[in-house]
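Hi all, long-time lurker, first post. I run a small reading group and we've been trying to get comfortable going from sequence to structure in the token notation. Rather than ask abstract questions, I figured I'd post a concrete chain and ask someone more experienced to write out its structure so we can walk through it together at our next meeting. Sequence below, copied exactly:
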Amino acid sequence: MEESNMEKIENMFAEIANKLTGMDDKFERLINENTAMKEQNRLMKEKILHQDRKIDSLEREIRRKNIIIKGVEDIINERAEDTRDKVTKLMQDIGVEMDEKNDIDEIRRIGKFKNQYKRPIIIKLTSGMKKTQILHSSKNLKGSNIWIDEDYSREILEERKMLIPHMKEAKQKGYKTQMKYNKLIINGEMYGIEELSSSHITEGGERMNFAKRTVSERSPTGDSYMEQSRKVTRTSTPKN
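-- Answer (accepted) --
Happy to help. Here is the structure in token form:
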């Protein structure tokens, strides 16, 4: 009788062991499947990121020789030749000679006509040198309500817009600044919007207050804008 009971117990434990082994196998398969899915997801993200960069690069290349003119008087049903004449006169006013056949691929207004709104004009040039010449000569428009700029995508325009407050702040603190594409150059150092946004917040959550002096006056070692930012963060954060 006792042997029969022991045999039943042994069989029961053997059955439990078999079930546990089966569960271990299932868990291992699930872990492997999850790992494989994570790897596929990672590869997919890398592929999408690569494609996005490729698209951005292609779009930038397409826009590379374009310029945008804003503020030129606009009329309803403006003809293409009227737009060209206005651009030709504007180029003459800023001292740029334009050969319409050799220098220009296309000139046109952007968007539909609206009252009290001057549609921008896009000029697709054939030469990067001509574009540089026009942008350099656009300083002669100072004091007018017309300005000439690069042809940026909507995303880049948004980033540049977010950089403006940082540019103004840096100028107020005595730094030399220049905006280039979607980056801000401060005293020769290049920064993106994420770097600048994070560098302007102290550990206590307050905005930094830069001393109104030049880098050479503040730092004999010529610390960069970000290095100065970190120093101000450390000195402005109260100790516990």
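A couple of things your group might point at:
The first strand starts at residue 66 and ends at 70.
The radius of gyration is 32 Å.
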